[in-house]
């Protein structure tokens, strides 16, 4: 057992914190998807890990000792910015929860 156990809700918060730096800069292949498509295709309690891989491809992932996983997809939002769609997958491989984060404000010089 982990010295610092992470509960599912805490896992989403932790994943957002760990992945928050991913909203700008170069995006690795396979992590971009239209926000509308993510919002309609990913259904908590129904969509599986295999469905995500088949529909959207591999992406940035954080795996927790509890067996939960947090996956991050990004959607272009214009001006070099991206909104983030975080998916929490339970140990059985089914989406437990999703959260969408709007794009951050553009950096000022």
Largest sheet: 4 strands, antiparallel
Overall pLDDT? 80
Succession of helices and strands:
HHHEEEE
Radius of gyration: 14 Å
In a few lines, what is going on in this structure?
This protein is 25% helix and 28% strand. With 109 residues, the chain is of the alpha+beta class.
What does this structure look like?
Strands 1-2-3-4 form a 4-stranded antiparallel β-sheet, sandwiched between helices. It contains 3 helices and 4 strands, in the order αααββββ. It is an alpha+beta fold and 109 residues long.
Task: Please name the defining characteristics of this protein.
single chain; 3 helices; four-stranded antiparallel beta sheet; alpha+beta
Q: Any chance you could write out the topology, listing elements then pairs?
A:
Blueprint: H1 8-19, H2 35-41, H3 49-56, E1 60-63, E2 69-78, E3 81-89, E4 95-101
């Amino acid at each position: 057992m982990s010295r610092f156990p992470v509960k599912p809700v805490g896992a989403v918060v932790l994943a957002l914190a760990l992945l928050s730096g991913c909203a700008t800069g170069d995006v690795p292949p396979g992590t971009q998807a239209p926000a509308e498509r993510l919002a309609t295709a990913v259904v908590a309690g129904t969509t599986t890990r295999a469905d995500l891989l088949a529909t959207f491809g591999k992406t940035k992932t954080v795996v927790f000792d509890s067996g939960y996983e947090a996956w991050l997809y990004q959607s272009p939002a214009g001006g070099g910015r991206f909104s983030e769609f975080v998916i929490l997958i339970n140990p059985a491989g089914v989406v437990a929860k999703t959260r969408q984060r709007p794009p951050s404000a553009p950096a000022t010089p």
